[in-house]
Amino acid sequence: MLRLLANILWFLFGGFAIALLYVLGGFLLCLTIVGIPFGIQCMKLSVLGLAPFGLVIKDSNNLGRPLELGLNVLWILLGGLWIALTHLILAVVLAITIIGIPFAIQHVKLSRLSLIPFGSKVVTTPL
Secondary structure of the chain in the HEC alphabet? Predict the structure, then answer.
């Protein structure tokens, strides 16, 4: 019940905008063949941005593979670093108040996924 309430508050106060921007970016990236893997990662970020409470990021065993490593480096150089910094700045701003601390934690989770999305997956936590 608490997760539902937190996700509703997240959705109303910025989560919808975050998810919408990630979906829009993902669709734009999928317009080109080369951008499809990056668009899929944006869609993964939109799922986490829509309702992050109750979701965790799991690293797969494939994180060190050359293809995923190369795609992560390319992602970081082309914008992943700026996306991660934006989420970290939002986390710092939200952490100023006690009420904002749970939302700041979710922005830190988003910044981790937005920095290295290839080889990570979003899964639900058991109740």
Answer: CHHHHHHHHHHHHHHHHHHHHHHHHHHHHCCCCCCHHHHHHHHHHHHHHHCCCCEEEEECCCCCCHHHHHHHHHHHHHHHHHHHHHHHHHHHHHCCCCCCHHHHHHHHHHHHHHHCCCCEEEEECCC
Task: Name 67's Cβ contacts closer than 8 Å, sequence gap at least 6.
Answer: none
Domain extents in the chain:
2-124
Encoding tokens for residue 62?
């494939």
Going residue by residue through the chain (127 aa), what tens digit of pLDDT does each one get?
A: 889 999 999 999 999 999 999 999 999 999 999 999 999 999 999 999 999 999 999 887 766 788 889 999 999 999 999 999 999 999 999 999 999 999 999 999 999 999 999 988 889 987 6
The pTM score is 0.90
Report the candidate in 91, 83, 88 with the shortest Cα–Cα distance to residue 115. 83
E runs forming strands in 1-127: 55-59, 120-124
